[in-house]
Amino acid sequence: MAKRNTITKQLILDSLKDSKTAVSQEILQKELGESVDRATIYRVLNSFCEDGIVHKILGDDGKFYFTICMNCSEKQHKHNHFHFKCLTCGKIECLPNEVDVKLPAGYQSVTFNGFISGYCSNCSSLSANSF
Question: Which CATH number is 7-129's, of 1.10.10.10, 3.40.630.30, 1.20.120.140, 2.30.30.30?
Fold first, then answer.
């Protein structure tokens, strides 16, 4: 059964695609304003995760952030990479390098959530120039 594409889903998807960073539900709520309620955003984001459209990042603040998937499908998410949060500008992004974690014999990885905090290339170059 095909899933219906609604105006609300399209608004949320467009907002995610236009974003240069992973965004939380609260950020999406502020962007979309009164046009979409909080529960609908939550439901649509989770639906997008299940469909392989977006992936969910657990931040160091305990919040979930969402970003568009690259090369994923409903049956297989490929997110064995670190996520990076800039302590200056707050941007959260996926780092491009895939990580291969060697687990002990008998263990099988299902998900990976690596999170690094620091200074992005833009903010670290700005602070280097201020000294």
Answer: 1.10.10.10
